[in-house]
Automatic annotation (TrEMBL):
One Pfam family recorded for the sequence: Methylase_S
Similarity remark: Belongs to the type-I restriction system S methylase family.
Record domain Type I restriction modification DNA specificity: where: 3-158, 182-304
Upper classification of the organism: Bacteria, Bacillati, Actinomycetota, Actinomycetes, Micrococcales
Protein keywords: DNA-binding, Restriction system
Source species, domain of life: Bacteria
PANTHER family xrefs: TYPE I RESTRICTION ENZYME MJAVIII SPECIFICITY SUBUNIT, TYPE-1 RESTRICTION ENZYME ECOKI SPECIFICITY PROTEIN
The protein's name: Type I restriction modification DNA specificity domain-containing protein
UniProt organism field: Gryllotalpicola daejeonensis
């Protein structure tokens, strides 16, 4: 531990107050109600005022397993659910509540989850929280760390907003595809190539140890390029399969929990019987059709055919007669190009969010453990 740092028990610099509001019985009102979920509820009354780190007292998963999904920070006037404890620092001139929140949140498994007790109902006691030891730098460094992480959080939120905007644009485009001027621009999926190749048309260079194979789990997100995995299948079975993709294909899960999920695939592959597929001639055609099949309009119709059952299923014949917009070649190319541009923006935003979250975790580990020191010159930025 660096010079100037000290280890202090929570009980020695904080007060701990158990929440008093039953979540399900809370009367909605103007005050935030801290609950175990990601979003706060509301309350007609408030219990505490100021700043607090709010620690759940019960396991997030239950069933004899100790875990905490999150530790909240709250400020102002707020109520606290009766399964949460509010930890408040006694001297804000020496201790930062936001810094304490970073510590207890980032190291919650080591500092809090490890202290949970019980078999069927795993819980955390107030005394266990009070006994937690926290490494604290001088208040000036606490504030620098808090500010640095807040800047990263702002960047994450900005990238997440770009991701939301790109996602909304893709949904809007997919829905707009159904605005076709004439009936001649509507086709059924059965009118398009179904993706089944004759047994005599065998994909080349497949071996029993390396057959490209697609399962519903591979079609994990709407409009996503699907990567096939390898599966051991006998050469004869692979060559005889009618569930073979060639060129550009659109796949849709038509059985089970992920019914409706859509993906595109390029190349040769076998696919699972829970998937229906259409093979097309060009990449933009595949992108266009995948977007149409991802639209709220098509998804609603598909799930209507599946019915409300524990194992929803749309048969291949029922799926094949479903209609999709199919305008002229130039229109499909134009829309396909626009969709790929928006997907590129979405992927870029997702990559940025992932990278920033990884950076945040690395910074927290380095700064909260004292392995990295933020120079005093950073204070000038805080003043600015």
């Amino acid at each position: 531990m660096r010079e100037g740092w000290m280890t202090v028990r929570v009980r020695d610099f904080c007060t701990i107050t158990k929440g008093t509001t039953p979540t399900l019985k809370a009367v909605p009102g103007p005050y935030p109600l801290v609950v175990t979920g990601e979003e706060f509820a509301s309350s007609a009354d408030y219990q505490l005022e100021g700043e607090a780190v709010c620690v759940p007292l019960v396991s997030s998963t239950g069933h004899g397993h100790a875990s905490l999904k999150r530790v909240h920070y709250a400020s102002g006037k707020f109520a606290v659910a009766n399964i949460i404890a509010a930890v408040q620092v006694k001297d804000s001139a020496r201790y930062s509540t936001k810094y304490l929140h970073l510590v207890l949140s980032h190291f919650r498994n080591e500092l809090l989850v490890s202290r949970m007790k019980g078999t069927a109902n795993v819980s955390l006691s107030i005394s266990a929280i009070a006994d937690v030891e926290v490494a604290l730098p001088p208040i000036s460094e606490q504030r620098r760390i808090v500010d640095l992480i807040a800047a990263v959080d702002d960047a994450i939120e900005a990238a997440a907003e770009e991701r939301r905007a790109a996602t909304e644009s893709l949904v809007a485009i997919s829905e707009s595809l159904w605005d076709v001027p004439e009936r001649a621009q509507i086709r059924t999926l059965g009118d398009l190539f179904t993706g089944e190749t004759p047994a005599s048309s065998n994909p080349a260079n497949w071996t029993p140890e390396d057959v490209p194979f697609i399962t519903p789990g591979d079609v994990d997100r709407l409009g996503t390029e699907v990567q096939s995995t390898s599966r051991k299948v006998s050469t004869s079975a692979a060559k005889a399969s009618k569930r073979t993709l060639r060129g550009h294909a659109v796949l849709q899960v038509c059985i089970g929990a992920t019914i409706g999920k859509v993906g595109t695939h390029h190349g040769e592959a076998l696919y699972n019987q829970q998937i229906n597929a259409v093979s097309l001639g060009t990449r933009f055609d595949a992108v266009f059709l995948a977007s149409a099949m991802s639209s709220p309009t098509f998804q609603s119709r598909l799930k209507g055919r599946a019915g409300k059952t524990t194992m929803p299923i749309v048969s291949k014949s029922a799926w094949g007669v479903m209609e999709v917009p199919w305008p002229g070649h130039e229109r499909r190319n134009s829309v396909g190009s626009s969709l790929e541009s928006h997907k590129s923006m979405l992927q870029s935003a997702e990559t940025t969010v992932s990278a920033l979250r990884a950076l945040r975790a690395e910074l927290l580990t380095a700064c909260l453990s004292g392995d990295h020191e933020i120079p005093a010159s950073y204070d000038a930025l805080l003043e600015a």
